[in-house]
């Protein structure tokens, strides 16, 4: 009994053990270092223009249009002024007419197609002529008619000779009329032979004539090919001429554009140097524009803290005179050089300026979490 009572007395209550455990955990947590994000604040940044541009004239002449005044906002490519461009416009119209004429000449040109048709017809004629020449040569080479006539003549002479011999043996065996008839057959056969020889010569001449016609057709084909080549060359020249006229037209349009003075970006006009009617020279300033829709905040940071900012990092900017005005910016530039005098590094933060509430020269502060 006594031993059991002693154990119960020395055992701590359950809630006391739990409290001691919590104290131990708290001590451990205080001892272990915990990483926390530190907010870096940099004051004294100054809003600056992202760009300011003096817009010049590109051509000489009097201003015939001035479309803006100080304080006007302009869009990229908007025509803000124009130099007298009447001569350039007329030159462009003339180039347009020349281009249209060149295009019409090329479209109406058909010599190449006609030359192709002529060449095809001449080649077909040559094929036909070659067939005729071959037929004439075959006919001229055929001596069957002469051979037949010669054999007929020989046969007639043979019959006449036999009749004469028979009459010498028997006077009354062959009458005078039969002999006369045989003599006529001999003469006729000789005439037929001579006609066959003459026809053969005529066929040879005809074959030579057909060969000459083939050669003539060959020459005509060569002429047709030359005409086709000339027509193709002429069409190529017309095509090149059209391309040249297209370039001239494009150049004339560019020349007209050079008389227009346009806004180089979305911006605000802050200066107008020339008035309508004044003479301007190429390169002479006409207006000045500045960009307010996007600004830069310029600041300086101690060299030892330059690694806190890096290009592309997002930061928060607060307008010093109106803390409720806050914008998000992006670090655009951190100088790799340290100023020898104040041991600081220059940096720029780019930010959008909706409503153009922040003006160049206003003070801002920067805050960013150092993680």
UniProtKB/TrEMBL annotation:
Gene Ontology CC terms, in alphabetical order? cell envelope
**InterPro entries annotated for this entry?**
Beta-barrel_RND_2, UPF0194_transport
Q: Which parts of the sequence belong to the CusB-like beta-barrel domain?
A: 305-368
Query: Keywords in UniProt for this one?
Result: Coiled coil
Q: Which domain of life is it from?
A: Bacteria
The residue stretches assigned to a coiled coil in this entry are 114-199
Write out the annotated subcellular location. Answer: Cell envelope
**Membrane-spanning residues:** none
The record, for PANTHER family, names: BLL5650 PROTEIN, EFFLUX SYSTEM COMPONENT YKNX-RELATED
Task: Please report the name of this protein according to its UniProt entry.
Answer: Macrolide export protein MacA
Question: Which organism was this protein described from?
Answer: Stieleria varia
What taxonomic classification does the UniProt entry list for its organism? Bacteria, Pseudomonadati, Planctomycetota, Planctomycetia, Pirellulales
What gene name is given for the protein in this entry?
A: macA_6
């Amino acid at each position: 009994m006594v031993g059991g009572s002693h154990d119960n007395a020395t055992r701590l209550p359950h809630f006391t053990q739990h409290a001691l455990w919590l104290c131990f955990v708290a001590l451990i947590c205080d001892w272990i270092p915990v990483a926390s994000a530190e907010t870096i604040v940099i004051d004294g940044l100054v809003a600056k223009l992202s760009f300011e541009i003096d817009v010049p004239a590109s051509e000489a002449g009097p201003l015939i249009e001035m479309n803006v005044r100080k304080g006007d906002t302009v869009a990229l490519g908007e025509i803000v002024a124009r130099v007298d461009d009447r001569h350039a416009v007329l030159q462009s119209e003339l180039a347009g007419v020349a281009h249209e004429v060149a295009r019409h000449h090329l479209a109406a040109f058909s010599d190449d197609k006609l030359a192709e048709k002529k060449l095809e017809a001449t080649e077909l004629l040559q094929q036909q002529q070659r067939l005729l020449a071959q037929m004439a040569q075959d006919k001229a080479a055929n001596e069957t008619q002469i051979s037949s006539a010669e054999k007929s003549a020989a046969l007639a002479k043979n019959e006449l000779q036999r009749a004469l011999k028979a009459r010498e043996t028997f006077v009354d065996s062959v009458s005078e009329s039969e002999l006369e008839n045989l003599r006529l057959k001999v003469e006729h056969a000789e005439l037929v032979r001579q006609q066959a020889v003459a026809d053969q010569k005529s066929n040879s001449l005809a074959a030579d004539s057909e060969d000459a016609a083939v050669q003539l057709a060959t020459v005509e084909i060569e002429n047709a090919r030359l005409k086709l080549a000339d027509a193709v060359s002429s069409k190529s020249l017309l095509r090149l001429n059209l391309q040249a006229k297209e370039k001239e037209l494009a150049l004339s349009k560019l020349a007209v554009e050079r008389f227009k003075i346009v806004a180089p970006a979305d911006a605000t006009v802050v200066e107008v140097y020339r008035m309508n009617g004044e003479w301007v020279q190429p390169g002479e300033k006409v207006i000045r524009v500045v960009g307010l829709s996007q600004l830069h905040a310029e600041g300086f940071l101690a060299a030892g803290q330059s690694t806190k900012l890096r290009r592309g990092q997002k930061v928060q900017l607060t307008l010093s005179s109106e803390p409720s005005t806050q914008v998000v910016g992006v670090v655009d530039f951190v100088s790799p050089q340290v100023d020898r005098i104040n041991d600081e590094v220059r940096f720029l933060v780019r930010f959008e300026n909706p409503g153009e509430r922040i003006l160049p020269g206003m003070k801002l502060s920067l805050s960013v979490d150092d993680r």
